[in-house]
Amino acid sequence: MVVDCHTHIRSATIQNLDASEHLAAADVVDKCIVLASSSEQSRQGHLPYRDGQAITVDGPADQVNKDLSQYVARYENKMVGFAFINPLTEGFSVSNLKSSTEKLGLKGIVLYCSQSAFHPAQTKAMQLYESAQELHLPVFFHNTPVAPGGFLEYARPFLLDEVARAFPDLKIIVGGMGFPFYEQTVCLLAKHQNVYADLSVRPGNAWQVYNIVISAYEQGVMDKLLFGSAFPAAKAEDCMESLLGFNKLFAGANLPTVPRSIIQSVIERDTLKLLGIEK
């Protein structure tokens, strides 16, 4: 089972949806998670980016989530949607969070702390996590890369330590390995049973890929890494090729290597099962 745990669609407005590239990129995986976004993040320079340009979306969060729901429903055998929530502007109790996600068929939550300008352990956010834990909804923290309008201090992965301590049964995914704070992410993975990280590498950044993977391997947390592409920033096929060719990146340089079987296990990890998502 190959699951791409981190993808975006170009627009969340179903009437203008250009999904052909997303569908083509997803062809090489068994399942993919599609993360919702909102016009709020786009106005502030929020990702996803491609070729240096922000991929914009349309409409308020509730409409974006509805449109995403319609999109993933069309490809329910391939795609799983995560709803965007800004806890500063949207209050969620267990009952209405359950109603919203069940009605829309979305299986998790994505937060953009650095772009929405809130500390991950902010009071309203903690209330949201409590509801998510009770409903067994995983939470994806998409805090990096940080655009010029974002708050870098809220993107630091170690801020999630408080969240993981308070809600030990909450499934947490640190997006993009917590770039640029990889070492903080690795520490979180080693410390908390239910904290995972999205290994969405940039195939062209060989030295960055090497340091991320070798750090995780040396700390014994390769089993906590989830394969992702961060599409449209990269394509799953290119990311897989980059990871499988990991030991050739600096062949002859006498640098430490990682067994190919371990890297293969990251790519083939059943992310949906780990996160408690029904297939």
Polypeptide structure, described:
The chain has 279 residues and is α/β, with parallel strands linked by helices. It has a single domain (3-274), classed as TIM Barrel. Helix content is 38%, strand content 14%. The strands form 2 sheets. Strands 1-2-5-6-7-8-9-10 form an 8-stranded parallel β-sheet, covered by helices on one side. β5, α4 (94-104) and β6 (108-111) form a beta-alpha-beta unit. α4 (94-104) packs across α6. The model is unreliable at 12-17 and 39-59 (pLDDT under 50).
What count of structural domains? 1
Q: What does the main sheet amount to?
A: 8 strands, parallel
Q: Give unreliable regions as ranges.
A: 12-17, 39-59
CATH class: Alpha Beta
Integer-rounded radius of gyration = 17 Å
Distance between the termini: 11 Å
The total of beta strands comes to 10
Average pLDDT confidence is: 87
Query: What is the H/E string?
Result: EHEHEEHEHEHHEHEHEHEHHH
Total helices: the number is 12
Question: What's the architecture in CATH terms?
Answer: Alpha-Beta Barrel
Query: Largest beta sheet: what is the strand line-up?
Result: 1-2-5-6-7-8-9-10
Query: Shape from CA axes?
Result: globular
| Class by alpha and beta content | alpha/beta
